[in-house]
Design a protein that fits this description.
Blueprint: E1 3-9, H1 17-31, E2 35-41, H2 46-53, E3 58-60, H3 66-76, E4 80-84, H4 90-98, E5 103-106, E6 118-121, E7 134-137, H5 146-149, E8 166-170, H6 179-189, E9 194-199, H7 203-210, E10 218-223, H8 229-234, E11 238-242, H9 246-253, E12 257-261, H10 267-275, E13 280-284, H11 290-301, H12 303-316, H13 321-331
Parallel strand pairs: 1-2, 1-4, 2-3, 4-5, 5-6, 6-7, 8-9, 8-11, 9-10, 11-12, 12-13
Length: 337
């Protein structure tokens, strides 16, 4: 059996985006009969750990040194290694390649010194240049979980004004910058009716959310992080989220989205997504004001505007990125021993 290792990280401050897209690739590999072993520092985030255990994906803490990573790859019988980390020292990928294993690096613009046989940058309008390996760039290579892909509608959704809009607001598995309460306040300030499900990543955030008072015709349902999020999104009329890796899931579902940028490395993706009309921009978290309220109000009350966003979003991501990346990776792996 071919065995692929995945070296990635998650944490309360770093979030879970790296892990989620690696899980998506792992699902595709397992479906093809490939063994997968995660070498992951999950920062003690229980939700992150559950993403692996509930799928039966074996994982262990990664070694701290490059030689240790090479040794672990040998012990586990790996035939290739996937890396997705902003903090992994570049000598780790170099050492693994020098040992004879092919390496696939998932990047976001900056290679951060990593060397690989295959580079994947799933971001909108991304370009891979100066690489000594194969470059797979753009939304055609977006790595989406099967729970999202299977809910993709056959055609772009058409919105009507016959029901109170259902909103889902979420900000990653940790919401490290406490976006949910700020967005809940803005939603209430629109004065428009809605039924909103808001993900509170921890008890403190949920307490803060419960303190936000909805207006007439408005309802908040405050819940903990859930694996049912894709189903909630598939039944929603509007999503409010950070402009991170989850954006490509929203596009695949054809879901109108209002986006904020939370950290600096989201700015470029945010601006490109808004410029292409794939989402509506609210601005920078912590600096949201009247313009953001107006944008949310328009999306809540204008079904035609939501339909236009849905059609553009749906056409941007077809959900087959994991297949294309898995094809490229396995083409570099020698025949099973």
């Amino acid at each position: 059996m071919t065995v692929v290792g995945i070296r990635c990280d998650a944490g309360a401050r770093t979030g879970v985006g790296h892990l989620v897209r690696c899980v998506a690739l792992a699902e595709e590999l397992v479906a093809r009969g490939v063994g997968v072993r995660f070498l992951a520092d999950l920062g003690g985030v229980e939700w992150a750990e559950s993403q692996l255990t509930q799928r039966g994906l074996a994982w262990e803490q990664p070694p701290a040194e490059a030689a240790g990573l090479v040794g672990t790859a040998g012990r586990l019988g790996l035939d290739a290694l996937v890396i997705d980390s902003y903090t992994l020292p570049p000598e780790h990928s170099a050492a693994v390649r020098a040992s004879g294993l092919p390496v696939l690096a998932i990047v976001d613009g900056d290679f951060r010194g990593q060397t690989a046989d295959i580079y994947v940058d799933q971001n909108l309008d991304s370009v891979i240049s100066g690489a000594d390996g194969l470059g797979l760039a753009g939304l055609d290579y977006a790595l989406l979980r099967s729970s999202v892909r299977q809910l993709r509608p056959l055609e772009p959704p058409v919105h009507t004004s016959t029901r109170t809009p259902k909103v889902v607001a979420f900000f990653g598995g940790t919401d490290a910058y406490r976006a949910a309460p700020e967005i809940a306040v803005l939603l209430a300030q629109t004065g428009a009716p809605f039924e909103a499900t808001i993900i509170g990543a921890n008890e403190s955030l949920r307490d803060e959310l419960h303190a936000v008072v909805p207006g007439e015709g408005q309802r908040f349902d405050i819940i903990a992080p859930t694996d049912d999020l894709p189903k909630l999104l598939a039944g929603a009329d509007l999503a409010v989220s950070a402009s991170g890796t989850s954006t490509w899931e929203l596009l695949c579902l054809g879901l109108p989205a209002a986006l904020v940028w939370v950290v600096d490395n989201q700015i470029l993706g945010y601006e490109k997504t808004i410029a292409r009309g794939y989402g509506a921009g609210l601005g920078r978290l912590g600096h949201l004001g009247a313009d953001a309220v107006d944008t949310l109000s328009r999306l809540l009350t204008d079904a035609a505007a939501r339909t236009e966003l849905a059609q553009r979003a749906w056409s941007a991501v077809d959900g087959r990125g994991v297949e294309r990346v898995a094809d490229a990776l396995l083409a570099r792996v020698p025949s099973p021993r």
